[in-house]
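Class, study these two lines:
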Amino acid sequence: MKYDIELRRGQKRLRLGLTVQVFYQADTGKWAEETRLLDVTRLGARFAVSRPVKSGRLLRLTMVMPKQLRRYDLDAPEYHVWALVCNVRTYTLHGAGASQSPRFEAGVAFIGKHPPASYLKDPSTHYEIAHAADNEEMWHVREITFGEEAGMVAGRASPRADGGRDESISEVAYEVSLELLDEEGEVAAREETRTKSISRHGASVHTTLEAARGRYVRLTIPRGDFMVVAIVRGQSLDAGGGPCLELEFIDGHWLPPQDAG
């Protein structure tokens, strides 16, 4: 679900630069970060954070929202709203003294004052937009089942209803750079390695690094000038018994070099 769902409903983005507190909790831990809105509407917002987030996660936001953009608590000093991450873009700051660690720009849809009951039971639950908000409501969400959420995991295509596969798998051993990201979004470890298999939405990568399920990594393939942030979905062994990380891409899609144009 793309952030521009709001533009199709005539919502004008306002570039207010408001300070916003972002609170995150899931199976990979929890954190809070203060940042600024890049733009905002009554139904959603866009902002940058230093830590990786994934589409389908819920965030709690706190900000001093102008009254005309609120759906409730019109006179409260602060506006507390839950939001669904709809898309994520990764970029790297450039210039003198700039860190090479990635930054993450998230587009979110506001879903209300309270999270779904399923989130309170399990903060690692993933969601998607169930149907569009009207003039009186925010976005409505539904849970994504494990099979739907996994989609393409680590070079293995998920089955379609007709018995086929959603995407092709390449077993070409691409030379890659693999970087582990810590809880602050900084690069904690790096190695040069190669892929075991790769498809549009994920890859299986040979590694000597320790990375638990839910850990974020950055994968760079010099051939094709491809860089993507991914989440570790599991571990496996190659034919020789060596360890591999099963990765799901969260902010981009891979295309074979001959198809990239």
Summary: Helices lie at 117-121, 146-150.
